[in-house]
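agent> call fold_tool(seq_1)
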Amino acid sequence: MNRSDMIEFLPWYADGTLPDCSFEVGAIAYGTDGAFKLELRASGACETKVQAELVFESPLAVRIVQEGSLMDYWNGGFVVRGHNVFVTASSQFLDWLEHSSSGVHSVDRVRHFAVFTDDVCVEVLSSDVPTVYMRD
């Protein structure tokens, strides 16, 4: 099994900014400045109806797919329970970026962030941690 074949997504709480609940994906926008903005709305059993916006200033790659398009994750044993915002330092998506950039974007310097819902899944490869803005 290759390093990238292992499913190693860990819950990402943005240093305690994001509560421990499940989120639905709201608005998605790519600004003219290159920033990628992702709105999250707390759902399910979350005590509050928190809204957050993740802003990636200079994402290297973005992938938005239906959850059925990620069968390699689900068949590999990855299960989403509760909190559904994740980060990993090892994935086939990261390997793809490193290979397609001829090593310019090394997996050692890039992280794979993901929000997995029952409908839409958003994955972002970024050298920087996104800024999190909490909304009422």
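agent> call fold_tool(seq_2)
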Amino acid sequence: MPTTSPGSYVADTNQFMPPHFGGDEAVEYGAFTFADTTARTVFTLPKGAVITDFGVNVTTVFNSSGTDLLDAGITGTGDFFVNDLAVSATGHSRAGVATTVPSRLFTAPLDDETNVTIQYTQGVADATTGAGVFYVRYILMSS
């Protein structure tokens, strides 16, 4: 049964908000290229976010003559979401792929705003092309 309090929104018994009150799924995403060889923040997730999906879409092939890998994480843990995901071919990779961390899905809401970082690593430092987008989909829990 939904609960309310004066001046606030409606939340269900699990403290999820219904659509149009923050219960809709939202997405944050950030682009990365072959030049992102140092971890950098691409977006910030809001306090209360519960992650429902994350993934990578490679739009331009990364062309190092060695391996082409992506880590996506949070400040202090560079591979929180993705560890050494091959990005040498175009396409979309989602949670469940061996190099992603599906245990990060549907866990406790974030206690604070959380910076999300990406870092491209090449086996041989000779890449001249490569571009993609990393995304996180989430819902907000009520406070």
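agent> summarizing second result for user.
Confidence is low (pLDDT under 50) at residues 1-6. The beta strands are 26-33, 40-45, 49-60, 68-74, 77-86, 91-94, 114-122, 131-140.
agent> awaiting next instruction.
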